[in-house]
Specification:
Length: 446
């Protein structure tokens, strides 16, 4: 007999309720996911390894433009000095850093003067006194370089380095200055790098800073480099090592993405993440019976098999630099640290490098250095955020020029390999904040 007010259970009612609950969860997730994608797009637009990378804005020279303007005004002030203002300061007899910059003339564009300007602009007298600046005009006929006949070069440099006939075979170097020789090989560039290294070694400065002639140094680069060197020395001792090879002041995030060879690790963690979600759902339902109606099997399956993979996909789409950024400070970078725009070498390692480069005779400085470091298990440090930026959009090779302008690219495929040597985080620097930081350091006697 059926009691009044009671109805027999309707077949499939529980399944219908579970389906409705699962649908509500899915729709709620989709709304959340859509908002998360929009947020991720804004955060990952400067990550070259992200699906949301926007090259039409990421390659904009934001802070670099400010710094280059400051540098040009500094060089102009040196050029226009009619004797009423003091001459630029020079190095002390015992500098802590030798900064070497080699330059050859580029077709239709000049970076050298601006690079030197960013290195010097804003330095205090004490900071400048700790730097021995060697500017190398790498032409057998130095007059071929537009800077050689300009006042600023000789006023700001501690030494204008030229090829010395009693030390080098000038005729042979002249044979390497042809367009064909520059395109077919890197013999002269490697020779010039070695020659400049030796010139800096002769100053007896404990550290040699080797810069390419198309970099931008941030305001306060000197004190940040000094802090980074102190950290590198301290960390080297902590790990029980007695020496390290270099400190990198510039790297590009271009090569810091998800590595294909690590796919088994990524797959394992993805499976663990999905298993964790399933275990949490089942565990909550087991220990909290009141949640059973909210976590039917269909919902747990949705969360595990659909929502979690979508979240994992978004994690990887956001890019490694966005999701797993390198912490601020000095850290080892044994892989993917490109390129040779800004190295600091301990003076004690210069003889090893000179011997290496002379033995190899031909090749790219960064490639040769990394091969040597890998073979000898050398310690390589890098500082984050980068202290230097690569501003050069046009190669120094006569037949491989990249247009200096036209940064509004639709995709990375439109950008030359030279143009991709870019630190995206550098452009987020705040000029006022860096100037204030530098002032504080100077006020503390730094």
């Amino acid at each position: 007999m059926i009691l009044l007010g009671k109805r027999p259970p309707i077949l499939g009612a529980s399944n219908t309720g579970a389906g409705a609950q699962t649908l509500r969860v899915f729709l709620s997730f989709l709304l959340f996911y859509a908002l998360l994608v929009l947020y991720t797009r804004t955060q990952s637009s400067r990550d070259p390894g992200s699906a949301f990378f926007r090259p039409w804005t990421a390659y904009d020279a934001s802070y670099s433009a400010v710094r280059l303007d400051e540098a040009d005004r500094y060089i102009d002030s040196v050029n226009n000095n009619n004797g009423t203002a003091p001459k630029p300061a020079k190095a002390s007899p015992q500098p802590g850093l030798c900064v070497g910059i080699a330059s050859i003339a580029r077709n239709g564009i000049r970076y050298f003067r601006s690079t030197v300007g960013t290195v010097l602009e804003g330095l205090s007298e004490a900071e400048r006194a700790d730097i021995h600046l060697v500017l190398f005009i790498a032409h057998t006929d130095p007059a071929q370089h537009p800077a050689y006949n300009e006042t600023w070069l000789h006023e700001v440099a501690d030494r204008v380095l030229l090829y010395e006939p009693d030390k080098v075979n000038v005729d042979y170097i002249r044979s390497l200055e042809t367009d064909a020789a520059r395109v077919s090989g890197r013999e002269k560039a490697l020779f010039d790098y070695t020659y400049l290294l030796q010139a800096c070694e002769a100053t007896n400065a404990p550290y040699v800073v080797m810069l390419e002639d198309d970099v931008v140094a941030q305001d306060g680069w000197y004190h940040r480099t000094r802090q980074a060197l102190a950290s590198a020395e301290e960390q080297t001792k902590k790990i029980g090592a007695s020496k390290w090879l270099y400190l990198r002041l510039f790297y590009t995030e271009e090569f810091l993405g998800w590595n294909a060879q690590d796919w088994p690790i990524y797959l394992a963690y993805s499976i663990l993440a999905a298993a964790f979600v399933a275990c949490v759902g089942l565990g909550l339902r087991q220990h909290r019976p009141q949640l059973h109606a909210h976590l039917p099997n269909e919902t747990i399956l949705l969360l595990t098999g659909v929502c979690t993979p979508l979240m994992i996909g978004l994690f990887f789409a956001a890019g490694r630099v966005t999701m797993l950024p390198i912490p601020t400070g000095v850290h080892q970078m044994p892989r993917f640290g490109c390129c040779s725009q800004a190295f600091v070498f301990p003076r004690a390692r210069v003889p090893d490098l000179v011997e290496l480069y002379r033995a190899r005779h031909l090749g790219y400085v960064d490639v040769i250095t990394e091969e040597y470091a890998n073979a000898n298990n050398e310690i390589r440090w890098a500082v984050t955020p980068s202290i230097m930026q690569h501003a050069g959009r046009r190669s120094s090779k006569a037949m491989n020029d990249d247009p200096a302008g036209g940064l509004r690219h639709k995709s990375k495929s439109e950008i030359s390999e030279v143009g991709k040597l870019w630190n995206f985080g550098f452009e987020l620097n705040d000029a006022a904040a860096l100037r204030a930081e530098h002032s504080v350091v100077l006020g503390q006697g730094g």
